[in-house]
Design goal:
Elements lengths: L3 E5 L21 E7 L2 E9 L6 E5 L5 E5 L5 H10 L1 H17 L10 E4 L2 E9 L6 E5 L2 E6 L6 H31 L12 E3 L7 E3 L5 E3 L8 H16 L5 H10 L3 H10 L1 H4 L3
Parallel strand pairs: 3-5, 7-9, 10-12
Antiparallel strand pairs: 1-4, 2-3, 4-5, 6-7, 8-9, 11-12
């Protein structure tokens, strides 16, 4: 989940991967340091044979990853990173601020919950006459509990469990609908792939070599367009099993504006994944 991505096109290189290459090769990352004012920024340089240009990624967890083709010199890479120092520093500051704004959930009335890109106010009701359950209505996500529980912590655990079950159920329905909606765009997929729901902390989805999809239930908190992006991303992996240039071209064909959608999804990742 990456929001900040910068490509440097000053030194285009030939793609060293051929159609016969079964797996792209990647060297281990090398740690480097950059100073911006009084701040020391650590970044990692990863050289990939299939990379055609230099890329700078700033991750929400404060990692700065430079991906570069083998033919680019260390001196050139360092010069590009220095030129982009302010850009890198600013994104690190933005991520740090965003993280400080995301407080651990307590699962009490008044907190925010998300569903299909909209923010809802959580309302917890203790009512012995009602069965335990979750209802979405009029801008509120209401969780009903038939009893108060022994203490506040016990109540929060029950509310969290009910919400997780509710999101799981919604995810199964919504993901099936969105998969059916976008599948015609993936003309290389001849049969509708199966998918399963699995809660993950750092991935929205994945695709097995057999073409089976795994989708994160937290994704149902994002707008439908973001769900479509993740599903299309994984469907592209059925044809292209790595993140080669061919993969990104294929994704661009089926969703030309995927970068904007991805940026929006990444910007909200801390909120959607917060538990």
């Amino acid at each position: 989940m990456v929001i900040a991505l910068l490509n440097d096109d000053k030194q285009p290189v030939k793609d060293s991967m051929s159609s016969k290459d079964s797996k792209p090769t990647k060297s281990a990352g090398v740690q480097h340091y950059l100073y911006y004012g009084q701040d020391k920024i650590r970044y990692e340089v990863v050289r990939k044979d299939q990379a055609r240009k230099l890329r700078i990624k700033v991750h929400p967890d404060q990692r700065v990853i430079i991906t570069a083709p083998p033919r680019l010199s260390d001196a050139y890479i360092e010069s590009v990173v220095k030129k982009r120092a302010r850009w890198i520093w600013q994104h690190l500051q933005d991520f740090a601020k965003q993280k400080s704004d995301v407080l651990p959930r307590r699962y009490v009335s008044g907190e925010s919950q998300f569903y299909l890109g909209r923010r809802y106010v959580l309302k917890v009701i203790i009512d012995p006459t009602q069965a335990a359950g979750v209802k979405l209505s009029r801008g509120k996500l209401t969780v009903s509990l038939p009893c108060d529980g022994s203490d506040n912590n016990d109540r929060s655990i029950k509310v969290k469990s009910l919400l997780e079950d509710w999101y799981q159920g919604k995810a199964k329905v919504i993901f099936a609908q969105r998969l059916a909606a976008v599948l015609p765009q993936a003309h290389w997929v001849h049969n509708s792939p199966t998918f399963k729901i699995l809660s993950m902390k750092k991935q929205w989805g994945s695709c097995s070599t057999q073409g089976h999809l795994i989708l994160n239930p937290h994704l149902v908190k994002a707008p439908k367009e973001s769900i479509d992006y993740v599903i299309l991303h994984e469907l592209c992996h059925i044809k292209e099993h790595n993140h080669s240039e061919r993969f990104w071209r294929l994704l661009t064909q089926v969703m030309p504006h995927w970068k904007a959608v991805k940026t929006q999804l990444d910007s909200m990742a801390e909120f959607y994944l917060n538990e």
